[in-house]
Amino acid sequence: MFKQVVYVEEEIQDHPNTQRVLSFFKEAVIVSIRHYKDVFNQSGADWRVQKSAQKLILAKRSDQYYYKGSDITPSFGYRHFYYNTLALNCVYDCSYCYLQGMFTSAHMVLFVNTNDFITATRQLIQQVNEPVYMALSYDTDLLAIEAWYPYCAEWIAFSKTEPLLTIEIRTKSGNIQSLLKQEPHPGVVLAWTLSPDEIIMQHEPLTPSLMVRIRALRKVLDKGWRVRVCLDPVLAVPGWKAYYSGMIRTLATEIQLGQLDSFSVGVFRMNRQFLKNMQGSRSDSPLLFDRYVLENDVYSYTDDLQKEMYGFIRAELETYCQDLKITFT
User: Fold this and answer.
1) What is the value of pTM for the model shown?
2) What is d(CA 223, CA 322) in angstroms, rounded to the nearest whole number?
């Protein structure tokens, strides 16, 4: 991965974080560029072709250091719910991932000026003077790349200085070494997305297995971290009830569900234009061509099927523990 070429913006070539990343890719050819969009926004790019030879781009973000949370993402009761984009695109390649419909490029961008993101977030907290929930980069999996760019460690350290801030780190990774070396902090929620192995093999082929994820979250849970389990997206593929029932049974066997901070459950849903873009580039994924219904510019399952799916997941979870905090999206 990223062994052949790494693109670096001229302005940040000497940045300490740039040098830190490049030290992990010593065999790569370093190509100097003016701005990351010169590569990332090239017209006529084929997302699937680029993904098969994914390149890394190191850049500086100059504005828009956070965004208001989307209506289709859970806010967990916070009035001030935001997310940021420390990186664009992901090392994984899940067939249902909206990034394939949002970006024209599959190359991965890392913004190295993390201090600017942190400063902007601190100013936001001072401005609202109320609790702020900041989800770190829904547009990637930060923990998966923590070994060569410690975004998570930097933001955990920052969160410990801001009593009004809660950060969420969502992941499918088993890369928890850095977390085990740090003291847990209540202002950090580690959120693991779990899927049945049958779904992982078919739709999340580059991600760790279910058991690897469960063992990782169990270790950080035992360490004292707050852990949320995300069953999102739940996919209504043939046999889905048996798959998700087996997954929940495995989870309940490995940990006491009551130890978890909460559950977040969501079914497949996709922005209309994103899904259209994905259908144009991923004819290999029948999932994208299911009989979804359009409501408020978002494609998802029918209301009846959604109710059935949510009801089934709730019942399966409550089989093992009645007193669970579950957020449905």
Assistant:
1) 0.94
2) 24
